[in-house]
Design brief:
- The chain is mainly alpha-helical and 229 residues long.
- The protein has one domain.
- The chain contains ten helices and two strands, in the order ααααααββαααα.
- A two-stranded antiparallel sheet has the order 1-2.
- Strand 1 and strand 2 form a beta hairpin.
- Helix 1 packs antiparallel against helix 4, helix 3 packs across helix 4 and helix 6 packs across helix 8.
- The longest helix has 31 residues.
- It is globular and about 55 Å long.
- The two termini are 31 Å apart.
């Protein structure tokens, strides 16, 4: 029972930090680009509270429920922006949209480097058995600080790769669609606007992306994990 609670706690802390960092990336780049919408809402911050206050269902309830049902966490958050600013500044809009997944890849890269160093020092052993067991400590007791560190770094690596790749898929309402829309406003802008005007398309887009993701994201995740072995 204690081990399950500890595992839930580690997953939740890493999920909240990773999601907060993702939305901070969006909000900070928008602010630097001249849009103060997220800044005024408190999202240009690594404090998770403003982000959780904006999306309590996606950042608290769904992650905990998904963990209880499937053993890992999914969820969402959002940072507001001014659509008029996005239309006037399509390049900045594309950069702002890409910055969230980029933030996830930064966290995944940091986790990869730390894991590699600790593997090289023989502190960790490669396991690769699950998203939260990429590395283990053979002689550490369950629930020990070192065991918790292996799980936290494993989750940080795997979860942020999943979040980064998934959000870059070019399907509304995901960030990848906004990146294309901002990068090629004349070619892609009208197409995506028509898609967004359809009722319920956001939900359909998420479903389609989730079905396609195993063919894109999981090979990337497996490649990264194998690079550690």
């Amino acid at each position: 029972m204690f081990d399950d609670i500890a595992r839930l706690f580690i997953w939740f802390v890493v999920f909240v930090f990773s999601t907060t960092f993702h939305e901070f990336g969006h909000a900070a780049v928008a602010y630097w680009g001249g849009d103060r919408t997220a800044y005024e809402g408190g999202q240009v911050s690594l404090d998770p509270v403003p982000h959780m206050r904006r999306e309590p269902f996606g950042m608290v309830i769904v992650p905990i429920l998904s963990f209880m049902l499937g053993g890992w966490m999914i969820g969402w958050a959002s940072a507001p922006y001014d659509p008029r600013w996005a239309r006037r500044n399509p390049g900045k809009y594309a950069l702002m949209s890409a910055s969230g997944p980029a933030a996830n890849f930064v966290l995944a890269g940091l986790a990869f480097i730390l894991i590699s160093i600790l593997l090289g020092l023989d502190v960790f052993s490669f396991y690769g058995g699950a998203l939260d067991q990429i590395v283990v400590v053979q002689d550490a007791a369950a629930g020990s600080p070192l065991s918790a560190l292996t799980m936290a770094l494993s989750v940080m690596l795997s979860l942020n790769i999943i979040l980064g790749v998934f959000n870059l898929m070019p399907i509304p309402p995901l960030d990848g669609a906004a990146v294309l829309e901002g990068s090629f406003p004349e070619q892609a802008g009208g197409f995506y606007q028509k898609m967004r005007s359809s009722p319920g398309f956001a939900i359909l887009g998420i479903i389609v992306a989730w079905k396609v993701f195993p063919y894109l994201g999981l090979p990337v995740l497996r490649t990264v994990i194998l690079a550690l072995s």
